[in-house]
Amino acid sequence: MGPFNGSLVQPFREFLQTLRPGYPYETLPYTYFAAAYTLVINPQVATVAHPVSCPGGTCTSYVLSGGLEMVAPWVPQAHEDHSLVKVQSVPSVQVDFSGPLEEPPRFNESDCDIFGQSGVAIGIRLCLDQQPSGNGWIRAGMLPAAASCPDFQTHYGQESMSVQKESIMGHVRCRYHDRT
Amino acid sequence: MFLLTHYPRTYAYRANLKTPVQILDLDLQAYRESLRWLLNYTAADLPPPSSIAQSFWSSQKQLGDPSTWGIAAQNFQSILVFPFWLFNANNWGNTQLKENQTVPTLPAEFYTQASLVEPYTKLKVDRTMFALFLAFQALAMGYVWGVLAWVWTRSRAPAKTSSFPLFDLGFRAQVLDEVGSIDVHQAGNSEIVKAIKDVRVFGRDVDAVGR
Asked: How do residues B42-90 score in pLDDT, each as one tens digit?
């Protein structure tokens, strides 16, 4: 697994739309939708590791090697007595998580996106920005909409959510492991 | 990095990592764009209860307790990691990749070697515990051998005794200590015991007896 390449995002989304021409909605295949929920605890993809640095009180780190899923050509199925695959020099990405953030978190409106639906209480607000002090950390915050806000309105760039329940806040930082 | 997977080739094991290089030039706008694609359930026409947002919206109480926010925190971490995993040169976020074949546009660092291997069990011995084990074993064995050596070099054969204790005591025993002062004619049992309690009697040397 290599480092994040932002130039791949738009072509990928456009490719998905070509699978069903004229489809008015965003295509979100279940393969990715389901994988996103438990990616870091999937042993085929990620391994828990020691954080490279831990500025916060609680730190978690994962090394993402990607496993054998993206090996090409595929592993031959002969030689059943040799049940392991040894791969040399696998590029990997290590992601450190550190938390909690300072309270109350201060994000600019432009750093936040709201995902919800008019008239529906189910919604979240996701905020991402670079750590003001730099050094490569990204601040991330997820705020669920309160169930007590039946009139929760959603607009990109605007929000009328006045009550915020418990949230998840933390720092994220990536490192790239080159070949050994 | 050393990667192993176990039959049925599902688990990954990390052995050695090089010193990582920090990524400082993350394309944050593209990163946010990828998360918008993932989380915008209205754009995907997903029912709200079927959305990723629902899991966090319904976990608000759990998020307030350190003993229960673990799952939600891991889910959040997984969502944040998802764009890194999908949108890299060697995953399906790269639309140029093809199934079960390498593509010429794949960067050079992804070309490597792999081999099928047979696992074996390896016992790893803790050096400190092994040293302690050797020390205690040496102590115990040294004591045992020391006792044996002492027995072989210092001990003597026991004196031969007969059915005549007075004869054995008179000619085959050697009294090394003086008997305490008592009236030998009038002393009772307790006085006798008190007088001879510190007296040591040994078998007389064979040579001395033989002369």
From this structure: 999 999 999 998 888 888 777 777 788 788 888 889 999 999 999 999 9
- Please give, one letter per residue, the 3-state secondary structure of chain A: CCCCCHHHHHHHHHHHHHCCCCCCCCCCCHHHHHHCCCHHHCCCCEEECCCCCCCCCEEEEEEECCCCCCCCCCCCCCCCCCCEEEEECCCEEEEEEEECCCCCCCCCHHHEEEECCCCCCCCEEEEEEECCCCCCCEEEEEEEECCCCCCCCEECCEECCCCECCCEEEEEEEEEECCC
The DSSP bridge pattern shows strands B13-14 and A124-130 to be unpaired
- Given an 8 Å threshold on Cβ–Cβ distance, is B4 in contact with A124? no
B23 touching chain A per CB within 8 A = yes
More confident residue, A161 or A37: A37
Inform me whether the C-beta atom of residue A67 falls under 8 Å from chain B C-beta atoms: yes
- In this prediction, residue A170 carries a pLDDT of 52
Look up residue B163 and give its DSSP letter.
Answer: S
Q: Measured between CB atoms, which of A79, A130, A168 is closest to B76?
A: A168
Token output for A168 = 């998840």
Closest chain B residue to the Cα of A127, Cα to Cα: B32
Q: Do A75 and B9 touch (CB under 8 A)?
A: yes
- Cβ-nearest to B1 among A6, A117, A177: A177
Q: How many residues does chain B have?
A: 211
Give the pLDDT score at B149. Answer: 93
Q: What is the ipTM metric for this complex?
A: 0.81
Give pTM, 2 decimals: 0.69
